[in-house]
Structure formats: C-alpha cells, structure tokens
C-alpha cells in the first residue's frame, strides 16, 4: 500500500484499475540531408496530419464541453499555422541541411524558452501550446504514434506525468473514472476540464507515474487530494462505503432540485449559481439554481486575440437570459487585471496588480471597451431579468461615473430604436473594505450589493490568497471579515435593498449558518454546491441562527468562530 498526497483538483471518490499514460520517448537525432525539398515536404505532411488530429479533437470537445473549451484547440491550430514557427523550421532545414525532426525540435525549444521567460501567465501558457503541438508533429515525423486517452476502452483511473489539453479533451467519461498526475495545479487546463466533466482528479503528486503501475488498484479522494494504491481490505471497504454514501447523497439531493431554499422556520433565501459562459447553464439547471448570481464576463474576452464585438457579447448575454426564463441573472462587467490578463490590451506590468489598474478602474479609463459591453447588456435586457454589477468599486465617484456611462448608452440605444428593459437593477460587488465601511452611503444609490469574499477577505487581512507563505491568514470566518459582511447586509436592508454574496464563502457549510443569521438574501456559488447548500438551509432554523449572530461576531479568532459553529450546528 502506498499513499500519495497531491492537490485536490476535482472533488469526488473513485476506485479502479490504473491506466498509466506513457508515450514513447521521441528520440531526436540530428541527420544531414541531401534533398531539402523532400525534407520540407516531410515536414509539411506531418503538419497536415497533426492539423487533421486537432480538428477532430476540437470538434469532439465542442460537442462534449462547448465552444469555450474548444478554443484551446483553436489556439493549437493557430500554432500549426504560425508562419514565424513554420518558416523558422524550414529555414533551419535549408540553411543547416538538417532533418525536419531536429529543425522542429530546435525551433520549438527556442520559442518555448522565449514564452516561458515572459512575466505574463497568458504568454507562459502559449509555451505549453507549442510543446503540445510540436510533440504531435514530431510523432508523425518519427513514425512513433502517440498513445492517447481516446484509446482507453474500459473503466480506469488515468495516471500521467501531466495531461496536455489534447489528452484531457479526448477523455471518455464512460471509461475514465479518475485522474492522477505528477504535476499541475487547480488552475491548469486539465484540472479545469476535469471539473467540467465531473471526473475526480488529484494533481501535483510528484511521483504517481513512478510509483503506480498498470492495473494496480487505485483509490482517489479528489476533495482531500489523496491517492491510495494497493489498498488493504480495510481501506477498500472504507472508501467503497464512502463512495456508496456519496452516490446515495447525490441521489437524495436530486429530490431538492425544484424545492424552494427555505429554512425550517420559513425564512426563504435565493440560491444562485456562478458561471463563466453560457455553456455552464446545463449544470445550473441540473442543480436547481434559482438564477445566476455571478456571470463572469471576462471569460468572453480570454483565449482570443481581439476584443469580442458588441454582437458577440449580446448573443451570449441573450442566451443566458432566455435560458433562465425570467429568473434573475446578475452579470458582472469586465473584471480584468490582478490574476487575469488580456495580452492584446497591452496592460502595464504592475508590482501589485491586485491593487492596481483593474476591473472598474480599467473600464472607466478605457470607456470605449466599457461602452461596447454596456450596449450589449442593455440590448440583451429585453430577453430576461437582467441585473448589472460593477466590480472593484472603491468610491462613490466610481459608481456614479459607471452609472452615468450606462445611462448614456441606454439613451443612445433607445434613440436608435432598440428595446431596452426599464427594470434593470444596477449594483456593485463589495470587495474592498472601504466600500463595506461606507455601505450605508452606497446603499442610498445602488440597487443591490453582492459581496465578493474572495477579494474582501484578502484585502481585509492583507494576505495574498495565492501566496502559500501567508495562506494561513486567508480566514473567511475572521470576526473582522464577518463584521464587514454584517455592515453591508444591514446597510442594504436599511434602504430596502437586497444583499447577496458571490464569493466561495457563499457555499461553505460553516459560513452558511452565519450568513443566514446575518440576513443574507442571496447565496451564489458553484452550481454543483447548490443542492447540498439547499439541504443544509432546510435543516437550519433562521431564528436560532439570528440569535447566535452576536455571539459569533464577538468571538476573537477565525478558529473560535469555526469551532463554535461546528459544535452549535452539529457540523462535525
């Protein structure tokens, strides 16, 4: 028995036989050539074969996972068509009189080094694209076909050093029941796509491929990031029981899809979903969400080489609004900056981008971009229950300026003959402590608040949530954070407005009793969490949660709050 620890990338438990994905070593040997034209022809033929592969993969991904995930392979196809790369390879073949394999390998490594050295996450990802594509072309040149995940024809746990986007895209959910990799993180392509497909995954184990052999029995605990190989009878029995209970819980939760989100004593709240694209709507509906509490529109701008047009955005927003059929849809305006970059905007490099030129600050400065998005939103408002939300608002002036631009574009559209809803609520994300402190003044002007706890927590405690050295300070139950949340909710209610939350905290089982007691009106979370949260709210008594709010707010530490809530509401 061996136990490996990694990063839980996709929740769930899975038990099965290991399939170790091992491709042949592509041994690149330099050879002198006599006929340049023949060698260039070999290279071009390999490019065509790789192109054919990627077009098939892209079509499969588009059908299975949607347009957004398929864009990854659009980027790979662009690499195959990149004249700079292709001409560099052909130039090496011609000038150095070397074989195509060696020329491609040298050229690819040259470009990979350039991209990896850039201080830009998006450009670093392009290095992975080049590595993936060049490996595919080399396999054809060397006559060593790659082993792909599409070759799997029985139920297995997939073990790999890393999964390239093309590997993950070809996974058949019928057969691949879990994924374990040596490297990777929660934000890698493979982790994101694993979650989209609902396949339990543990990444970053370091040694999985060296310690796990084919057909070995493997247990994955995707929530805790644990992998057990050759489990003993006791472990196997324990996890089989856990898996059965997990399946029974999932089945039980299905009965709550059409139930209201109401406490045991009749307090009703709204459970909404966070989404990044219209493709996510399937899981929103499957999990009984009562609307969309956060549509992260920045994903419409990413993985492309230009800004989306007004019509492109309009179609996306319209699709979401029509699909939700009158349920509320809160759409956040462009939130770029911090850890999200758009290379084609050529944004400045900043020492502290999370406190820099981002979100509403960028939109007010580049109102040409902002106005296009607002026009698309306003046009789409005729097709459903739209609410517009501005992110990263720090001052009343920022809100007023953004609202003024929105009103200007509304007037223009009406004069042009477009239909625009006259019932659009306009609110802000509360992510900055100064905004929470001044919530009573904001509440006089905004229609609603949505508390973005991911940033509010890190700004309040001054602890970068991405920095492992201070991650222990990222404390969602810190009394200082909870008091700011209460201040925002109370300010909204004093003006007859509603307050929601769209950060990860909204779906946290410890936070839910606290937030219910503080009077939060709307909880927006990942769609897969909604039914569990609804079940928990059904079991809570609102009056009880309200009565203990003062006790919780007067605790001194994050740990004291968590311990009290777990004991008082029997969460352990």
Provide the CATH top-level class of the largest domain. Answer: Alpha Beta
Mean pLDDT: 88
The assigned CATH architecture of the largest domain is Alpha-Beta Barrel
Strand content: 5-15%
Helix content: 40-55%
Unreliably modeled segments: none
Gyration radius (Cα, Å) is: 26 Å
What class would the helix/strand composition place it in?
alpha/beta
Query: Order of strands side by side in the largest beta sheet?
Result: 1-8-7-3-4-5-6-2
The CATH superfamily of the largest domain is identified as Phosphoenolpyruvate-binding domains
Coarse shape? globular
Number of strands: 16
Give me the number of helical elements: 23
The major beta sheet can be summarized as:
8 strands, mixed
Q: What is the number of domains?
A: 3
Brief account:
The protein has 572 residues and is of the alpha/beta class. It has helices spanning 36-65, 67-81, 83-96, 100-116, 121-142, 165-169, 189-197, 208-211, 233-253, 281-286, 310-324, 359-365, 367-380, 396-415, 433-437, 439-442, 453-461, 479-494, 511-518, 530-539, 542-547, 549-553, 558-568; strands at residues 2-5, 7-10, 13-20, 156-160, 176-181, 201-203, 217-221, 226-229, 270-275, 292-296, 328-332, 385-390, 425-430, 448-451, 498-501, 522-525. The chain is built from 23 helices and 16 strands.
């Amino acid at each position: 028995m061996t136990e490996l620890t990694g990063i839980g990338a996709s929740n769930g438990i899975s038990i099965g036989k290991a399939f170790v994905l091992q491709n042949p070593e592509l041994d690149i040997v330099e050879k002198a050539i006599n006929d340049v034209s023949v060698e260039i022809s070999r290279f071009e033929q390999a490019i065509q074969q790789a192109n054919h592969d990627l077009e098939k993969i892209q079509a499969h991904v588009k059908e299975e996972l949607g347009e957004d995930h398929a864009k990854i392979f659009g980027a790979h196809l662009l690499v195959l068509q990149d004249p700079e790369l292709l001409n560099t390879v052909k130039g090496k073949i011609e000038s150095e009189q070397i074989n195509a394999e060696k020329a491609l390998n040298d050229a690819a490594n040259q470009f990979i080094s350039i991209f990896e050295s850039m201080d830009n996450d998006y450009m670093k990802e392009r290095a992975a694209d080049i590595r993936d594509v060049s490996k595919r072309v080399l396999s054809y040149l060397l006559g060593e076909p790659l082993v792909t995940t599409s070759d799997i024809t029985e139920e297995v746990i997939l073990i790999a050093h890393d999964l390239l986007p093309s590997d993950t895209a070809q996974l058949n959910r019928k057969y691949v029941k879990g994924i374990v990799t040596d490297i990777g993180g929660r934000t890698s392509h493979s982790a994101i796509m694993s979650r989209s497909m609902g396949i339990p995954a543990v990444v970053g184990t370091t040694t999985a491929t060296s310690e796990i052999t084919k057909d070995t029995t493997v247990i994955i605990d995707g929530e805790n990031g644990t992998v057990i190989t050759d489990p003993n009878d006791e472990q196997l029995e324990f996890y089989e029981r856990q898996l059965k209970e997990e399946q029974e819980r999932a089945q039980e939760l299905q009965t709550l899809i059409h139930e209201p989100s109401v406490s045991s004593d009749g307090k009703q709240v709204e459970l909404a979903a966070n989404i990044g694209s219209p493709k996510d709507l399937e899981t929103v509906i499957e999990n009984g969400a009562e609307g969309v509490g956060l549509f992260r529109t920045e994903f419409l701008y990413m993985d492309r080489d230009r800004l989306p047009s007004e019509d492109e955005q309009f179609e996306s927003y319209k699709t979401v609004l029509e699909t939700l059929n009158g349920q509320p849809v809160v759409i956040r305006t462009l939130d770029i900056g911090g850890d999200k970059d758009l290379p084609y905007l050529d944004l400045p490099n900043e020492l502290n981008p999370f406190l820099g030129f981002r979100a509403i600050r960028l939109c007010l400065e580049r109102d040409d971009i902002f106005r296009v998005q607002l026009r698309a939103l306003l046009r789409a408002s005729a097709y459903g229950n739209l609410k517009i939300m501005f992110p990263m608002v720090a001052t009343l002036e920022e809100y007023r300026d953004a609202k003024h631009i929105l009103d200007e574009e509304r007037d223009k559209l009406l004069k042009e003959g477009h239909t625009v809803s006259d019932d659009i609520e306009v609110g802000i994300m509360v992510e900055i402590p100064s905004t929470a402190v001044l919530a009573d003044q904001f509440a006089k002007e905004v229609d609603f608040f949505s508390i973005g706890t991911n940033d509010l927590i890190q700004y309040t405690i001054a602890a970068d949530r991405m920095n492992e050295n201070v991650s222990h300070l990222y404390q969602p139950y810190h009394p200082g954070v909870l008091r700011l949340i209460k201040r925002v909710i109370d300010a909204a209610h004093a003006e007859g407005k509603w307050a929601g939350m769209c950060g990860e905290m909204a779906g946290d089982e410890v936070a839910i009793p606290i937030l219910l007691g503080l009077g939060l009106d709307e909880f927006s979370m990942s769609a897969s969490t909604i039914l569990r949260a609804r079940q928990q709210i059904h079991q809570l008594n609102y009056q009880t949660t309200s009565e203990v709010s003062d006790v919780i707010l007067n605790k001194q530490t994050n740990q004291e709050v968590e311990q009290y809530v777990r004991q008082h509401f029997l969460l352990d």
